[in-house]
């Protein structure tokens, strides 16, 4: 009964969303920018794809998470002018944790751009277990690879290969554009959950991943340009069944707590994503945050650019 009630609440929340034009700023290839590819949660809200974003730097794209819909949202962003998100450029992704809502798009990210002639393998950075996941996916789709590589279809030789890199805290990646540092966050029962900090020539961007309020986010941001953080509505949370209240309280971050955390972290821009809104509106969640954080805060939607 409670499940039915919760589902109807979720559906009601989904039906409140309406189509809208992307917000934020215009895409500028001269700058480091954040392109929100999926701002949703496990709830199958058609307006909000599964968690994924891209840090776009000088024509290169660095993805964080691969929720369902990631490849199609990247294609939509490309059509909206973000050339860096063309299929062959989807070459590197940093996975925050192995929850399915953050990884269901991984086979899509491994195989679809290959069919569209990506030459380079996909580099997949993520927590312990990511190598087993990519290995299993490679085996699951072995027949597809066999058919496409032996059936006369034009193909590249290694575009379907996923190179897994299992990470721990610290610098996990560096090139001429960016240094990426992983840090541990507290996502309830998830043993290995990470956030990432991207430092480029013009911006420092911190992505929380899924987490309850965690001091590491404050330390890593410390006046950063952009903090992308998950959130849930405290007001709507109070209406949930007790077992769901307990779960969300240990695994996720309420709007009011995020406001307090942001006041300590001091980001120039706070982007709310992975919003568990239930019966609340985005404006109400932003209001919860603003009661404790005087800085700039926005509630992200898919394809917003910041
Ligand atoms: Zn999640
Ligand atoms: Zn999660």
Description:
It is a single chain. The chain has 11 helices and 13 strands. It has a 7-stranded mixed beta sheet. A 6-stranded mixed beta sheet has the order 1-2-3-4-5-6. The N and C termini lie far apart (41 Å). It has 306 residues and is of the alpha/beta class. The chain has a single domain (21-299), classed as Metallo-beta-lactamase, Chain A. It has helices at residues 2-15, 70-79, 100-103, 106-115, 130-140, 142-150, 215-221, 234-237, 242-251, 255-265, 282-290; strands at 33-38, 52-57, 60-64, 92-94, 122-126, 162-166, 170-174, 178-184, 194-200, 204-207, 226-232, 269-276, 296-299. Helices cover 32% and strands 24% of the residues. Bound molecules: zinc ion (ZN) (2 copies). Residues 97, 99, 187, 210 line the site of one zinc ion.
Element layout with pairings:
Blueprint: H1 2-15, E1 33-38, E2 52-57, E3 60-64, H2 70-79, E4 92-94, H3 100-103, H4 106-115, E5 122-126, H5 130-140, H6 142-150, E6 162-166, E7 170-174, E8 178-184, E9 194-200, E10 204-207, H7 215-221, E11 226-232, H8 234-237, H9 242-251, H10 255-265, E12 269-276, H11 282-290, E13 296-299
Parallel strand pairs: 3-4, 4-5, 5-6, 10-11, 11-12, 12-13
Antiparallel strand pairs: 1-2, 2-3, 7-8, 8-9, 9-10
Bound molecules: zinc ion (ZN) (2 copies).
Give the tags.
single chain, 306 residues, alpha/beta, Metallo-beta-lactamase, Chain A, seven-stranded mixed beta sheet, six-stranded mixed beta sheet, 11 helices, 13 strands, 24% strand, disordered N terminus, binds zinc ion
């Amino acid at each position: 009964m409670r499940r039915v009630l919760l589902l109807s609440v979720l559906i009601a929340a989904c039906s409140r969303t309406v189509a809208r034009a992307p917000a934020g700023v215009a895409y500028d290839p001269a700058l480091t920018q954040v392109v929100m590819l999926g701002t949703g949660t496990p709830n199958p809200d058609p307006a909000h794809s599964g968690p994924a974003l891209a840090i776009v730097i000088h024509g290169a794209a660095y993805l964080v998470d691969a929720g369902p819909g990631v490849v199609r949202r990247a294609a939509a962003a490309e059509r909206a002018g973000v050339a860096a998100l063309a299929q062959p450029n989807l070459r590197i992704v940093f996975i925050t944790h192995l929850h399915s809502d953050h990884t269901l798009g991984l086979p899509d990210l491994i195989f679809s751009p290959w069919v569209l002639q990506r030459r380079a393998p996909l580099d997949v950075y993520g927590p312990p277990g990511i190598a087993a996941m990519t290995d299993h996916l490679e085996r699951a789709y072995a027949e597809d690879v066999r058919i496409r590589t032996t059936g006369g279809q034009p193909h590249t030789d290694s575009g379907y290969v996923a190179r897994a890199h299992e990470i721990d805290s610290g610098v996990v990646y560096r090139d001429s554009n960016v240094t990426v540092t992983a840090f541990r966050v507290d996502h309830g029962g998830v043993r290995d959950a990470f956030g990432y900090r991207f430092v480029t020539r013009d911006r420092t961007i911190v992505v929380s991943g899924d987490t309850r309020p965690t001091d590491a986010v404050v330390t890593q941001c410390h006046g950063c340009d952009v903090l992308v953080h998950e959130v849930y509505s405290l007001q709507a949370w109070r209406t949930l069944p007790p077992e769901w209240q307990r779960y969300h309280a240990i695994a996720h971050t309420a709007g009011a707590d995020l406001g307090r955390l942001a006041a300590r972290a001091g980001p120039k821009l706070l982007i709310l994503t992975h919003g568990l809104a239930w019966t609340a509106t985005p404006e109400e969640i932003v209001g919860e945050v603003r009661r404790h954080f005087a800085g700039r805060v926005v509630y992200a939607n898919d394809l917003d650019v910041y």
